[in-house]
Amino acid sequence: MKTILITGGSGMIGVRLTEMLKAKGYSVIWLSRKRNIKAEIPRYSWDYRKGEIDTEALKQANIVVHLAGSNLGDGSWTKAKKQEIVESRILTTKLLLQTYKSLNIQPEAFISASAVGYYGMHTDDNIYTEESPPARNDFLSRTCKKWESAAFQFNEELKVRVVALRTSFVISKESEAFKKMILPTRFGLGAPMGDGKQYMSWIHIDDLCNLYIKSIEDSSMSGVYNAVAPHLSTNKEFMHTLAKELNRPYIIPGIPSFLLKLIMGEASGMILEGIQVSSQKVIDSGYKFLYPTVKEAIHASLV
């Protein structure tokens, strides 16, 4: 079987994707801060700040899955945090490309993470497809555009097949964000964020990882895909479903927007705003969701 090189492999998505790839017989290696090729998942070192990378990993890899990137929801977006968010995505991509070029080799495909934040942090009733332009030119949208542009340089400069998955909120029992929703809800304190009318695009982690695997295996896939489930939900509907699955009341008014803005600053837009994002292109590619509804995805992540 082929060897899949994953960047950001130790993160929540990378760990689950690694499990699912290995279950299918793939060989998986990671690019990590420290080299440990004797680990269960062999790790090869890289440091994008220093422009250093263990070329042995690239020589082994048939396909690259690029998940590396500073956590968007980890703290407020200070000037330094914003720089880290951008550089950890764009500079890592550029380092991979330049190293492949210097080695005069190339992977069969380059599969990159992206985010539905591409469309901008706002709320309206439009349904956004992969062809839709961003409705807001905010920090998250600009970052996603740069991120995808860097990824598609693999196609422009090396003619490598590139897939970018614009990922939504990931429902997983390992998700710190999801855990923060579960904890107060277990105590009967579940509540929407703000007025709860903002749409909340989401995907179960197994569906997301299956989309990465499909991107690896299906050579007809190229370009951008919205990694979102087909069932559209508002934040209020999502939190109400969570309360019902936990058999807890849902009577608390929404968490005030001003409080979230005070705590999170500009980053609060990720949860106080939200749009409807279409999964039709993914469905048309032949993918069938394991968890198409919020109820199914939440239930599977609570057991």
Q: What can you see in these coordinates?
A:
It is built from 12 helices and 12 strands. The chain is 41% helix and 17% strand. The chain has one domain: NAD(P)-binding Rossmann-like Domain (Rossmann fold). The strands form 3 sheets. An 8-stranded mixed beta sheet has the order 4-3-2-1-5-6-8-11, with helices on both faces. The protein has a two-stranded parallel sheet with strand order 7-12. The chain has a two-stranded parallel sheet with strand order 9-10. The mean pLDDT is 94. It is α/β, with parallel strands linked by helices and 303 residues long. Strand 5, helix 3 and strand 6 form a beta-alpha-beta unit. The chain starts with a strand and ends with a helix. The protein is globular and about 60 Å long.
User: Can you write the helix and strand succession as a string?
Assistant: EHEEEHEHEEHHEEHEHEHHHEHH
Overall pLDDT metric: 94
SS elements, strand count: 12
The helix content, as a percent range, equals: 40-55%
Cα-to-Cα separation, first versus last residue: 32 Å
Which stretches are low in confidence, meaning pLDDT under 50 for 5 or more residues running?
none
In CATH, the topology is named: Rossmann fold
User: So what's the overall shape?
Assistant: globular
The structural class is: alpha/beta
Estimate the strand proportion: 15-25%
